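Example record

One chain of 300 residues, shown exactly as stored in the release files.
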Amino acid sequence: MRLSTVILPVRRWSEGGQERWQRAEELGFHAAYTYDHLSWRVPFRDGPWFGAVPTLTAAAAATSRLRLGTMVTSPNFRHPVPLAKELITLDDLSDGRITLGIGAGGSGFDATALGGEAWTRRERADRFAEFVPLLDRLLTEDEVTAEGVYYTAHEARGLPGCVQRPRLPFTVAATGPRGLRLAARHGQAWVTTGDPAANESGTPADSRAALARQTDALEKACADTGRAPDTLGRTLLTGFTPDRPLESLDAFVDFAGRHAALGFDELVLHWPLPGTRFEADERIFERIATETPAQLGSAG
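Predicted structure tokens for this chain:
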């Protein structure tokens, strides 16, 4: 079991932003991620919100061991060709510490920021099915030419490629059959926030049952694509299920054990933010980071 954190990009770098990333490394987290949005839901939408790629660039310079990444990037305002160039650069600047969390995106928040209509769920899935394989090629091949329905690359150069070989790892967010097959084909890990219905009105037991169904569907997707299920990592982005794992060390250890039994090998905790759904006692949060790994058999 690995423990990681999400640091939302809401602080100026000179006013606590840098210290959060450095503290994440000091606490021994496996990785620190940030959201890749132009803006996000209330109460964040009308407040400070910084870009993911510059933030990760600065975090790479401010740390030396901590893995870094997005949780998650989507096609909502990204194109595979410039994204690939930015990721290759980030991987170089961090000396091979970047993980790309990637998902199909949603219909709100930044989906209409570029002035168009929000895509339907079907169109988001169609775009994602084209986006991920093309990005995979752009990060592994020296030159790519491809023409799709939504995304085109013409003699796009990928030199010198990623520090991590054959490319930096993908953690694919998915719950439906098509997305899960993409995770099985292209992902080094899969990530979920749980089941929306169980998160909204269910109990912790309901949530775990829904997660078990998701992991069963993931294993079916692996079987359909010829992937050994135990070669695909399983990440839970916490903070959305009905559980309250940050209330105490005991609550977290129980939460982690129950989800490890479902096959999850990475838990991602939001860094506490007062006045939001991610509010928590930062002292307990730091104790969880430093004291529970030994109990969970965590890998660094």
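Notes: Residues 204-225 form the longest helix (22 residues).
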